[in-house]
Each structure stands twice: as structure tokens, then as C-alpha cells.
Amino acid sequence: MHSYSLIAPAKINLYLEIIGDRPDGYHELAMILQSIGLADYIDVHSISNDTIRVHSNHPQVPTDNSNLAYKAAELMTRQFPEAFAKYGGVEISINKQIPVAAGLAGGSTNAAAVLVGIDLLWKLGLTQSELEELGATLGSDVPFCVSGGTAIATGRGEQLSPLPSLDKIYIVLAKYRSLEVSTPWAYKTYRQEFGNSYIRDTNDLAARASAVHSGEIVKAIALADAGKIAQKLHNDLERVVLPAYPQVLQLREIFANQEGVLGTMMSGSGPTVFALFESEQQAEQVKLHVREAISDEDLELFVTRTITHGIQVASSI
Ligand code: ATP
Questions:
Q1: Contacts of 191 (CB under 8 A, 6+ apart)
Q2: For residue 58, pLDDT beyond 80
């Protein structure tokens, strides 16, 4: 095989708690991450010369070495120089469907797909946990994107514990195309405003992170109870993003007042807001109502659902 087509799903955060500062300068987090049906499509081909090339259908996606997919390929060439010499370079095509800079891990899932694709192209036979370990060096969300489904992520977000899969909870996502929230800004502002409540002791950090495992939302996930999950959605970053971005706050309020919405929350550092539903029909209905309430063409709306997997191979030649 010299070409693989991969499906790279986005994620939402059902839960995001900032526990404290870590000695390495990152934040200690406790998150619950959920893969969703909205996905990018990534083709990975072997090419005869020793280069990495990236193409994308989306103007905001860089095609140089700042692209996380490019960085993933570069990492593989460094880690496996013999396979690189044997199989040659890699061409990566990104068909971007996931909104960019949206809090949906678009870049991270592309990087995860490239790790999986090159592992297959070069017949490396890496295990899922080896791929996740490589992914952790590229970004905190990459390991989750490899395996996907539903998981608790602690540490910087790279330490994963799988949870029972949540299938078919329906979702409406809303994002203003031209609105971007800088993730570093969101965490920095949170630290400035709320850092005095951080846990500082390393043992207490670990204890708090592990307490999340027995929290209410985890119990609701074990029961696959969409209504209870929706009542326990949480995202600390809303405390800084909602006051600074009135459009995000407005989306939250509109969703909260729609019939059929089980719960609504911002994903990651935003600006995407999501709402959860029992049925696809309810989700489609609310999408229409939100479109009527905000007739701004800059607003993108998607209906999708929870899925139980991360990167998947669609085809190979
Ligand atoms: P996360 O949820 O992991 O914080 P995000 O969904 O908020 O990520 P991305 O879509 O990954 O954000 O984009 C963040 C920035 O990364 C963009 O502004 C873009 O320029 C850059 N970028 C690099 N590689 C990619 C990629 N493969 N896809 C999208 N953006 C990329």
C-alpha cells in the first residue's frame, strides 16, 4: 500500500477543570473528552523524494512546517529514519471540515491521523499506546485524538483513562467563522483572575485529578444517561471567555432557552458552543431556530453526534 485515507474526528469537552499550576509550567487539568462525528479527511501518500508536503482545501490551514500534521510527519521521519530512507517522503492532503481554531482539536486530530497513516505506510506496527506517546510530544490533545471515544484526560491532558463509550447523543455546534479565541490567552487570563484558588501542592494536585474519576458526570456517563451528563457539563474557561466574547455568551443563552436542549457548554477554550439532545430531530429543529434567531452568515451551525472511535482508516491503495 502506498496511500491511506483516514477519518479524523473532532472532539468536544464535556468537562474541563483547571486544577492548578504544574512544576513544568503547564496547567494540571481534568477533562472529559468526547469524539464527535464531525471529521476531517486526511490522505497520506508515499512520494519518491525525501520531502513532506501538505495541501489543504482551507485557506486558514497552513501548509508549511507550522501545520501540526506536518510536524507529525517530521516527528516520524526523526523517530524512524530507516523507514523514511526505505519508503521516501510523505504527501498529506487535508480536507478540512472541522472549523479552524474552534476548540474542537482540528489540528490535533490531523496530527493523530498522520501518525496512524505513516505507521501503516511504513509498516511500523506501532501499538495504540506507542502512537499516543508520540502524539503527546506534539500536543496535549493528540493522544486522545488517536484513540478517541470518551475518556478522562488528566495531567496536561495527555494522560488518558477510557470511559464507557457514549454513542448517539446528538449535538448542535455553533461557531462564528471569523471569531477566534487564543488558547494561551484564555489560560493566561484564567490564571491572572482565578489563580489564587489553584491547588499548589503536587500531592493535592494528583488527589484532585483522581477525584474526577468518581465525579457525578463520570457516573452519568457509566449509565449513558444523556440528561444527567448534560446537567453536569462544566468548563472553567467559560469564566474568562464568556465575559470577553459577548457573541459566545449570546450563543450559550440562545441554546439554553431552546426546547429539547439537555445542556449547553463552550468546548475547550472556545469559541464553539455546543448543545446536547436526545434525538437528531430535536437537534435539527434547534439548528433551524438558532439560524432564525441569528441571521448572521458568519455563524456556522452543524448537527453531529457522539461517536465511539478516534482515527479510522477509510480506504487504502
Ligand atoms: P484545540 O481544541 O486543540 O485547542 P483548536 O481546534 O482550537 O485546537 P486548531 O483548529 O487546531 O484549533 O487551530 C489552531 C491554529 O493552529 C490555527 O490558527 C491554525 O493556523 C494552526 N494549525 C496548524 N495545523 C493545523 C491543522 N492541521 N488544522 C487546523 N489548524 C492548524
A1: 21, 27, 198
A2: yes
